[in-house]
Inverse folding.
């Protein structure tokens, strides 16, 4: 050893020390955690929470961060305040009905919000009859709104103070609830031009306040209860449905002003009692049914009638001269029947007549006054059997019709005029000839 130079030993000892130091560092790195790298120190502006640095090397995933604090629930809206408790009562029914409306092309229901029901579109308020200081929902007018809903049940019958309900030209369907008979003030009901079906809503018979009923242009079927024609109605429109029955004998048992049964399937003769009972009627529309038999001379008692339309039925016989007593009549339609004989001049002399349609019948003669109406366009006698006039039936067709004998009862009554007309008269009739005409 003494012979070895110190300069030679120094590099050897240095190499041994470096090797030992590297070995110690290697063993330490496998058994201890790596030091955290912190930039900027505490409060230095960098990230200083536990999720910023590298997580410890463990076999388990770090726990999920705690959920954010829950958003407190929106407090329920304050109770709606209504100007009258009667409005609070109908509010749920309105909102429920709104929820079943499947089509609202005009955006009507957008206004049905909040407690101010009196400003909802289509809703109108007034004082009810039993309390002049109260405010109630008095009428509903949905005419022309084109709303679609599967039923009115649970809505109309839940409006206790309703007086008028008009819902013309919508797409409401289903049947009518019997509960509507419990509505004490309802006097106008118009559900025309919708999609209602089923039998006639008999609950209407129990509505003593009702004076206006319009259910036309729907799909009601079956028969109409005879009691309907005994109700104290001013207006009865049941046309354009699928009612099928004999025309009731008591059809003229009220003071009705407008009676429309058109476009159904009523059959049988026009009762002789009908005209006398309805002496105040303004319009009678029986067109497009299956009425048969001869015209009763009693139609001359419809003295207030402005319109009398029985076109497109199966009526036969002559026109009664008594029709000349309808001094207020403007429109008369007998077209599309099996009427025959002479067109009476007493009828053509009516002063207010603007349209007299006798086409598509089997008349054989017209008088001078009637010819003037033909020239002026007031009278239409096309497709008859009148010689010398254009657009008539063929001779063969007329001969075939008259080959079948047709007899009407009480024939003497057809030339009887039951009123005083300055230029016309008729032979007197005995009681036996008028019997059994109702009184």
């Amino acid at each position: 050893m003494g012979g070895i130079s110190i300069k030679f030993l120094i590099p050897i000892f240095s190499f041994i020390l470096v090797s030992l130091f590297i070995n110690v560092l290697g063993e330490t790195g496998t058994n201890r955690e790596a030091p955290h790298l912190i930039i900027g120190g505490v409060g230095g502006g960098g990230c200083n929470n536990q999720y910023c640095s590298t997580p410890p090397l463990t076999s388990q995933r770090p726990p999920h961060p705690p959920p954010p604090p829950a958003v407190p629930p929106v407090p329920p809206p304050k109770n709606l305040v209504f100007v009258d408790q009667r409005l609070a009562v109908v509010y749920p029914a309105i909102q429920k009905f709104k929820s079943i409306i499947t089509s609202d092309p005009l955006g009507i229901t957008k206004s049905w919000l909040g407690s101010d029901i009196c400003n909802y579109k289509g809703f109108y308020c007034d004082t009810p009859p039993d309390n002049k200081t109260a405010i109630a929902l008095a009428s509903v007018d949905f005419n022309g709104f084109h709303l679609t809903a599967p039923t009115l049940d649970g809505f109309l019958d839940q409006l206790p103070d309703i007086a008028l309900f008009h819902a013309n030209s919508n797409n409401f369907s289903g049947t009518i609830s019997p509960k509507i008979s419990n509505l004490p003030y309802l006097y106008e009901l118009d559900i025309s031009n919708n999609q209602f079906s089923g039998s006639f809503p008999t609950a209407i018979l129990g509505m003593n306040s009702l004076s206006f009923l319009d259910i036309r242009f729907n799909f009601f079927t079956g028969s109409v209860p005879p009691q309907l024609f005994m109700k104290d109605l001013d207006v009865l429109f049941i046309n354009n449905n699928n009612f099928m029955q004999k025309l009731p004998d008591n059809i003229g048992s009220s003071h009705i002003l407008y009676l429309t049964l058109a476009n159904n399937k009523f059959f049988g003769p026009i009762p002789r009692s009908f005209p006398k009972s309805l002496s105040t009627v303004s319009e009678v529309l029986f067109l497009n049914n299956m009425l048969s038999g001869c015209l009763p001379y009693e139609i001359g008692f419809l003295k207030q009638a402005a319109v009398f339309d029985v076109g497109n039925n199966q009526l036969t016989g002559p026109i009664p001269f008594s029709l000349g007593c309808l001094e207020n009549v403007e429109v008369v339609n007998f077209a599309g029947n099996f009427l025959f004989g002479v067109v009476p001049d007493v009828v053509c002399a009516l002063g207010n007549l603007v349209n007299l349609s006798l086409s598509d019948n089997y008349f054989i003669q017209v008088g001078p006054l009637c010819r003037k109406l033909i020239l002026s366009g007031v009278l239409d006698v096309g497709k008859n059997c009148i010689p010398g006039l254009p657009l008539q039936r063929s001779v063969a067709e007329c001969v075939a019709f008259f080959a079948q004998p047709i007899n009407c009862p009480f024939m003497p009554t057809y030339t009887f005029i039951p009123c005083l007309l300055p230029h016309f008269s008729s032979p007197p009739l005995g009681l036996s000839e008028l019997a059994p005409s109702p009184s």
